[in-house]
Amino acid sequence: MKKVLSLLLVVVMIFSLAACAQKPAETPSTETPATETPATETPAADAKPYKAALLLNGTLGDKSFFDSANEGLQKLKDELGADKFDFKVEQMGATAADEPKWEPTLLDYCDTGEYDVIIIGTWQMYEALSAAAQEFPDQKFIFFDETFNEFDTGNFNNIYNVMYKQNEVSFLVGAAAAMMTTDENLPMIDPSNKMIGFLGGMENSIIQDFLVGYIQGAKHVEPEIKVAIAFVGNFYDSAAGKDLALVQYQNGVDVGYNVAGSAGLGQIDAAVDAKRYAIGVDSDQAALLPEKAEFIPTSALKNVGNSLFRAIQMDMEGKLQYGAVEKLGFSEGGVELVKDAHYEEMVPENIRTKIDEFEQQIISGDIVVDTSAGKTTEEIKAIMDSVK
Amino acid sequence: MILNALLSPEFFNAALRATTPILFATLASAVASKSGIINMALEGIMLFSALFGVLFSAAFQSAWLGLFVTMILGGFIGFVLAFFVLKLKTDEILAAIAINLIATGGTVFLMLTVSGDRGVSSSIKSLQLPRVALPLIENIPFLGEIISNQNILTYISLIMVVVVHIFLYKTPLGLRIRAVGENKDAAESVGISSQKIQFTALIISGLLAAMGGFFLSGGYMTYFTKDMSAGRGFIALAASTMGGNTPIGGFLVSLLFGAAQAFSNIMQMGASLPYELVQMLPYATTLIGLGIYSYSLMKKRHRLSGK
Q1: How far B107 CA sits from the closest chain A CA (Å)?
Q2: Which has the closest alpha carbon to A211: A222, A223, A227, A233?
Q3: I want to staple B46 with a disulfide (CB 3.0 to 4.6 A). Which of A289, A378, B81, B229 is the partner?
């Protein structure tokens, strides 16, 4: 009896893990037969395609980073053809139960030696990458969305670190929010106070960078602006996110900005309840939540896909600078503000013109957006206090 | 600023809202614990129920029918837990961990199968239970604003405190549950089937937790997001234990927790304290509250023993 039971439990656990790592049918297949057939047919051609492995500490279908990364690689494959470029996606899952397998999976991929480059991202993979890059000095890595700060040790010349100027796009969001909060013509605005909101997941360096840009943008158009700031403490408790955002809306915030993963979706629910505005992040949240789109003027995006597309193209030409950080902003297409028909419908033209002007000024360097990188906690606290 | 916000009806409103899912799960934990089994699968049951609520309210286009089916399925998960623990003699903690693990991956898997989404169930047109304005009470200044216009499940959770209390202490089945929990062998010696009683208790526990889960996605929020139970099942387990596994005690602890949660939200808005410190507040308050409570209990015992 006990044996049957323990077997059952094992099956149950395997099922739960397998469920996290479910591979959707549309994942580009890179099984060996597919790649080998063309190779044997054209023996004279370049021996092997450039192969990339994308290891996600989450799953596809997030309608955000990971999907964007996958789309970027797919686009490159479509453009160059499968004989020139191919890639494999490994979905490792995001929960605490999945975490222990991230590093082993990464090491397994390094061990095969099959891939020209292994792509991983986010701060949660930092330590695994650091370990793997030292153990496999010949394996090349692309690391996105977290600063890798050990390059000066000289040991990591196999990592290309791509970052996004989330502060630049947040500058535009802050400017838009500050202009909207005083615009009497908008239906859900109380123009009597100048207050906007910010809902972060945790106070890490990336979220701070969002915040610093947001505050600067808001102050740029409205020096007297007040910004209500709150942090959920994680990236998944959407109900807690909703309560925090509700407190902000009830105390005079008209436009909020959520940078808190799926916990941030709570802010959108709060905006619906309070009849206020919420600006999305990481994915086009108006498209993600069509029924609540009338409360979401626009979203700020990091274009992970674009950046990978660009990096791999450069790497094929041997131009990619390994062993260094590169930050991509508006000029390289690393970040963008969603400007579709829905945005044009919701945001008045005078504000949109201003936003476009600011974007051009950022690209030309007339506006230099402040960043949290290199700032001490006290300096960031001073920025936050300046809009209290 | 903080004081103003604290005295506003919105604060009490938020406190009651934050209390509701924890209260359901606390009651669920109390019933299970009284029968002698710790239901640590509350977290998983809530997470599953939050998704089931979305799926079935959308399928039937009726929130009430959705709640009904969700409760049945919640009860079923309770039954599965009981089956493993009682029939197959699994360790109750291990079986519960398995259920919680299945819930994290399984909900995402189910959501993906049904809607093609992994993060948020936005493409499923689910329904929510309504908020209710209580006649007469809503006209009382201040108090009316606090009590009236809550989600109907919040009222149900408050009624459930009384119902579960009566159930445990005034009905034959409740007496049997407590008897089995106190001393299984003694209960069996007077002809009570302890297995049957524990099965029943865990199914009831599952039903109650399912209501809390349903509230998350069909009242608190209007959609399911992955991992949205966010540890509430475990907090409820603690709240129930702190409340001595009684419905009333559990209710007071969850209310304290909910109020501290709402207070910490306001603190983030107004105070210039580090947010990590503010976020500790609900847990710290509950701990301190428990400390004071057990100290006074100890004093009383000393007095009674005449020392």
Answers
A1: 9
A2: A227
A3: B229
| CB nearest B230 (choices: A64, A240, A248) | A240
Q: Answer whether B230 sits within 8 Å of A230, measured CB to CB.
A: no
Distances (CA, A) of B292 to A281, B137, B295, B305: 44, 34, 5, 20
Q: Which residue of B has its CA nearest to A289?
A: B122
Predicted local confidence at residue A206, as pLDDT: 87
ipTM above 0.95, yes or no: no
Contact between chains at A236 and B226 (C-beta distance less than 8 A):
yes
Domain boundaries, given as residue ranges, for chain B: 2-305
* Residue B178 token pair: 């407590």
Q: What is the 3-state secondary structure (H, E, C) of A157-201?
A: CCEEEEEECHHHHHHHHHHHHHHHCCCCCCCCCCCCCCEEEEEEC
Question: Which CATH code for domain A50-164?
Answer: 3.40.50.2300
Count of CB pairs separated by less than 8 Å, A with B: 147
Task: Sort out which chain A residues have CB atoms less than 8 A from B80's CB and list them.
Answer: none
Segment A68-109, tens digit of pLDDT: 899 899 999 999 988 899 999 998 887 777 888 899 999 999
Handedness of CA B236, B242, B245, B247 (dihedral sign): negative
- Nearest residue of chain B to residue A64 (CA atoms): B119
Residue of A nearest to B113 (CA): A24
Tell me the per-residue pLDDT of A197-241, one tens digit each, with 9 for 90 and over: 999 998 888 899 999 999 999 999 999 999 999 999 888 899 999
CA distance B295 to B175: 29
Q: What is the pLDDT of residues B163-210, one digit of tens each?
A: 999 999 999 999 999 999 999 999 999 999 999 999 999 999 999 999
CA distance B113 to chain A (A): 10
Is the Cβ pair B104, A243 closer than 8 Å? no
For chain A, say whether B182 makes contact (Cβ under 8 Å).
no
The partner residue sitting opposite B120, judged by closest CB among A228, A244, A262, is A262
CATH number of A166-301+348-385: 3.40.50.2300
Give residue A152's pLDDT: 85
**Residue A35: is its pLDDT beyond 50?**
no
Nearest-angstrom CA–CA distance, B40 and B32: 10
CB contact under 8 A, A262 and B226: yes
Query: What is the least distance, in Å, from the CA of A20 to any CA of chain B?
Result: 5
Give the separation between CA A236 and CA B227, rounded to whole angstroms: 6
For residue B242, the distance in angstroms to the closest alpha carbon of chain A comes to 23
Angle at A274 between CA A270 and CA A278, to 5 degrees: 55
CATH number of the domain located at residue range(s) B2-305 in this protein: 1.10.3470
Q: DSSP secondary structure string, chain B?
A: -HHHHHTSHHHHHHHHHHHHHHHHHHHHHHHHHHTT---TTHHHHHHHHHHHHHHHHHHHT-HHHHHHHHHHHHHHHHHHHHIIIIIS---HHHHHHHHHHHHHHHHHHHHHHHHS-SSB-TTS----PPEEPPTTGGGSTTHHHHHSSEEHHHHHHHHHHHHHHHHHHHSHHHHHHHHHHH-HHHHHHTT--HHHHHHHHHHHHHHHHHHHHHHIIIII-SS-BTTTTTTHHHHHHHHHHHTTT-HHHHHHHHHHHHHHHHHHHHHHHH--S-HHHHHHHHHHHHHHHHHHHHHHHHHHHHHHTT-
* Chain A residues touching B10 at Cβ < 8 A: 246-247, 250
Sign of CA dihedral B239, A250, A275, A356: negative
Segments making up each domain of chain A, as ranges: 50-164, 166-301+348-385
* DSSP for residue A97: T
